[in-house]
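ok so i was messing around last nite and threw this chain in just to see what happens. nothing serious, just curious
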Amino acid sequence: MVGETSNHGRDSQELAEDRTDLAEDRTIMAVERTMASWMGSGMGLIGLGLGLRAIFGAFEPAWVPKAMATFFMILAIVVVQGAKRRMCGAIHRMSTNWVEAPNTKGMEVIAAGISLGAIVLIIGIWAFFG
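result:
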């Protein structure tokens, strides 16, 4: 196991506690990977919104492609902010043992940046494309 040399001379209670500690560490790392995956999904939704706007840009009425793009941008914001909320909540409920806890402040900044980018794109789509 991580951080140990041998299990000889240890009782089953100590070994069970170590297994529990390692399971919690694995869970924290899984939460971090899941957060990264949801951030990627949010970026993909932003790209999908921009792509739909580009493909259907000449469509009439002009508000339809803007609305489609806006829908996916808003969905990206919901996905990213929901993932951030769940990740930060899970990290704060658990404690690390042998691994370093992820920086929730950094994830909050990334989620805010992605959300702000989506908002700026929504404003740009409605303000600059006729």
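not much to say yet. DSSP finds three helices and no strands in the chain.
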